[in-house]
Amino acid sequence: MLNMIKAETKRLIKSKGFWISVLIYILVFITCFYMQLSAEQSTSFVDEGISKEPGFYISVDASIKSLNQLVQTFGFGFGSLVLGIYFTSFVCSEYTSGYIKNTAVLEGGRKAVILSKIMVALVISFIILALNYLIGWILGICFIDNFMINPVQEIFIDFSMMLLLMCALFSLIIFLSTIFHNKTFGIVLLFLIASGMLQPFLDSIFNLLHISFASEYTLSYFFSTILPVSGPVVSHAFMMSIAFILVYNIGSAIVLQKTDI
Mind telling me which residue stretches traverse the membrane in this protein (predicted)? Predict the structure, then answer.
């Protein structure tokens, strides 16, 4: 089992697709940051009554002033989406190539397949969040006036919470890939959750069923909400993320155990 985890982690690190995905994510992060910065500048011109040069401008409702806010606004969602697409292909490739037939027949092989994918998800999530904070710190210091670096405790809490949420999302990908052996469904659902597009639909369904409170117990709810650092919400996010990780991965292990590969 440990050897399989090492092998999968090594396959991730040596994968060109992984590093290309990381590069794409960095470019998206920087581009969105630049657009936000330009929008804030154009909005300040209007507030001050200064005429602007002809051109296209985007208005914004709130300015980004802290490191956690910057990471949550751009890095978390985009990182989950871009690297989630890669992770979906990474997991499904084992089924499409038939390599799963070689690993599943080993002693404890089926459980090891799921555990190794969980470890890969953890490694990807950690790398993305570390890059989030590094790039966010550089951009914030260089381009944002009075940029605030949050206290270490706040950064640790937000980092841990986003790490668990990303692992929960990737655990869902593992579960879907184990069932369907196809990346299309996983990528579509990944996009809907990470972009926040799924949440209004779920809100409507739960309201129709008169259980609107259930909306706050969905994975998409946390991805469509800027994560605060207040006690009750943090505890709720932590508990639900752990629950998602356990349910999806236990479900994946059960499905793989009963599947005739």
Answer: 18-37, 74-93, 114-139, 159-180, 187-213, 233-256
The DSSP-derived string for 109-149 is HHHHHHHHHHHHHHHHHHHHHHHHHHHHHHHHHHHSTT-BP
Alpha carbons 88 and 58: distance in angstroms, whole number: 33
Q: Is residue 52 a part of any domain in this protein?
A: no
- Per residue in 92-130, pLDDT (tens digit) is 988 887 777 777 666 667 788 889 999 999 999 999 999
Classify residue 184: in a domain, yes or no. Answer: yes
**For residues 65 and 44, what is the distance between their CA atoms, to the nearest angstrom?**
15
228 half-sphere exposure, CB direction, 13 A CA radius:
6
H helix intervals, the chain: 2-14, 16-47, 67-70, 76-96, 100-104, 109-143, 152-180, 183-194, 198-208, 219-223, 231-258
Contact 8, 116 (CB under 8 A): yes
pLDDT at 206 over 70: yes
How open is the CA angle 221-192-33, to the nearest 5 degrees?
85
Q: How far apart are the first and last CA of the chain?
A: 19
**Looking at the domain assignment, is residue 222 inside a domain?**
yes
SS3 category, 66: strand
Answer yes or no: are the C-beta atoms of 164 and 61 closer than 8 Å. Answer: no
Single pTM value for the model: 0.86
Residue 115: domain span = 2-17+65-258
Residue 11: CB atoms within 10 Å: 15
- The rounded distance, in Å, linking the Cα atoms of 158 and 228 is 8
**Reduced to 3 states, what is the DSSP secondary structure of residue 163?**
helix
Nearest by Cα to 111 from 259, 256, 6: 256
Q: Which two tokens stand for residue 96?
A: 């499409």
Indicate whether 72 belongs to any domain.
yes
